[in-house]
Amino acid sequence: MPAEGTWNLSISTPLGKIKAIVEIHTREGALTGVARAAGEEVPLTDITLEGDRLTWRQSVTKPIRLNLAFDVTVDGDTLVGTSRSGRLPASKVTGERRPDPDRAQPKAGAPQ
Asked: Where in the sequence does UniProt note compositional bias of the Basic and acidic residues kind (predicted)?
């Protein structure tokens, strides 16, 4: 799936930039995931992938308690979009997928 993997996210919020790690996998035909930031790990809910549009929800308690809704577009190993919480302004989200060691290319000169 084009959304699967481990993503390094940067979220530009009114409180400053927040770095997060999001892991998305397929289990029994459904997308599942977790997000890690500010010393907490939270599950992703309502994960949907339609074409290149990926959406999910998550609740966080740090730096403040928020229910977040993400809406991003995946383009290869990058994503761009927004995160919203209620009436707060949307925050810009960017991300890069971490390389998958299982799909790594052999090094030049290495036996294959």
From this structure: 94-105
